[in-house]
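FORM 12-B: Structure-to-Sequence Request
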């Protein structure tokens, strides 16, 4: 831990004297608590990232499998599976991703 503190302090520029003094006054236990909190935060962020990735894969999975049309109509994007809007399933959004999400919602309503 002492080596970590020394390398941390060595990496600071001279314009951080207040921060250097604060770190020097911290006890080993306080530094370990900070390190533990940072580790927990990183684990939470990694978990959230994995969940987001899984949700995105789920949303794009159906799109990739069925390969509906992705069209731009003015400022809106449209995802269409089927012959036309009346007979098919369509989703709309301001971005392709939002249109795909809307299309997935419409698909789930039809099933």
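FORM 12-B RESPONSE
SEQUENCE OUT:
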């Amino acid at each position: 831990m002492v080596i970590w503190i020394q390398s941390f302090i060595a990496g600071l520029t001279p314009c951080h004297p207040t921060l250097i003094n604060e770190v020097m006054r911290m006890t080993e236990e306080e530094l370990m608590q900070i390190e533990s909190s940072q580790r927990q935060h990183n684990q939470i962020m990694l978990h959230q990232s994995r969940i987001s990735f899984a949700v995105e894969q789920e949303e794009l999975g159906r799109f990739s499998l069925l390969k509906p049309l992705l069209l731009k109509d003015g400022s809106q994007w449209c995802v269409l599976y089927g012959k036309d809007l009346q007979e098919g399933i369509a989703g709309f959004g301001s971005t392709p991703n939002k249109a795909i999400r809307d299309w997935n919602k419409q698909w789930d309503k039809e099933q």
